Automatic annotation (TrEMBL):
Region called Disordered, residue ranges: 1-21
Job of this protein: Involved in transvection phenomena (= synapsis-dependent gene expression), where the synaptic pairing of chromosomes carrying genes with which zeste interacts influences the expression of these genes. Zeste binds to DNA and stimulates transcription from a nearby promoter.
Protein name: Regulatory protein zeste
Keyword Transcription: yes
InterPro entries to which the protein is assigned, alphabetical: Myb_DNA-bind_5 (IPR028002)
Keywords on record: Transcription, Transcription regulation
PANTHER family for the chain: APONTIC, REGULATORY PROTEIN ZESTE
Subunit-structure text: Self-associates forming complexes of several hundred monomers.
Domain Myb/SANT-like DNA-binding span(s) in chain numbering: 14-91
């Protein structure tokens, strides 16, 4: 008898079944908190948020239910059972659609209530899996293709390839005349000027070079002189002045610290002398008292 009573105490009593209204209310509340209870994270913060959400669902469910009050654990178990039932129903239909046929045709299952439909939309990825992209959708999708017009390329002339020199950078060269003596007449050819005919100039030299008097001097190219900007010089002077000020400040701080150290040493010496005097006085008083007792 005692064993039967103990076994009866260990068994958990079965609660009443959920009515259609209770099922509908549970799905309505779970869809309200679906962002929390369907969160896939497994950290401690998420678990606490889920527990708080189920406690709120329990409180709201028991506030307007007409049946037996339920605990958060019972509501969560029933919610998981409904999810499992929906997954099983739609997974079996998917297997039937992918099969080879045979037998009577099966209709596609439909949600009984709007709450079940909303729950199915929440768990649709775990029921049907990730949907792939069909080739027809890619072909029918609007793709914008940019077209570029052909550009005619012309070969540049040599004038565009030449480097133009500013007249100020050109160097004037002395005009050198080469004279060929062949009899009485001479023809003077200047490579930098036009041809000039010279009158009869007999000479015994075969070749001579005549430099013109009006030779233009070579233009000296000025080298750029680097000048320091005032802003840079002023900035460097300010930086040096700041560095000197900092050095003076450090020296002043060191001197102050040295003075404080000396002052502390003097105070310590005075305190030690004072303590020594007090100690001598106490010794003398103790000696006087011992002499009086004797």
């Amino acid at each position: 008898m005692e064993s039967e009573e103990n076994s009866g105490k260990g068994k958990q009593k079965r609660g009443a079944n959920f009515s259609l209204s209770d099922r509908k209310n549970l799905l309505k509340l779970s869809n309200k908190f679906k962002a929390v209870i369907e969160n896939k994270k497994t950290d401690g913060v998420t678990w606490r948020q889920k527990e708080e959400a189920w406690i709120k669902i329990e409180r709201e469910f028991n506030s307007f239910t007409t049946g037996v009050p339920r605990t958060a654990k019972q509501l969560k178990t029933k919610y998981e059972a409904i999810k499992k039932e929906l997954k099983k129903k739609y997974s079996s239909h998917k297997c039937y659609m992918l099969g080879t046929g045979g037998g009577a045709s099966k209709e596609e299952p439909k949600p009984e209530t709007e709450e079940e439909k909303e729950l199915l939309q929440t768990i649709i990825v775990s029921v049907e899996g990730v949907r792939g992209v069909e080739i027809e959708e890619i072909e029918n999708s609007s793709v914008i293709v940019e077209t570029h017009e052909d550009i005619e390329w012309n070969t540049p002339s040599t004038s565009y390839l030449q480097t133009h020199i500013h007249p100020a950078l050109k160097v004037s060269r002395p005009n050198v005349l080469q004279v060929d003596v062949s009899g009485e007449d001479m023809e003077v050819t200047d490579h930098n000027t036009d041809s000039i005919s010279v009158a009869e100039t007999p000479s015994s030299k075969s070749i001579c070079e005549i430099f013109l008097i009006n030779i233009e001097p070579w233009s000296c190219r000025r080298r750029p002189v680097i000048k320091k900007k005032k802003s840079m010089s002023s900035a460097s002077s300010k930086f040096e002045e700041l560095a000197m000020k900092k050095l003076e400040l450090v020296n002043l701080q060191m001197s102050i610290a040295e003075e404080i150290k000396k002052q502390n040493a003097a105070e310590h010496k005075i305190k030690m002398e004072n303590l020594k005097l007090k100690q001598d006085i106490l010794k003398m008083e103790l000696q006087i008292r011992t002499n009086d007792k004797l």
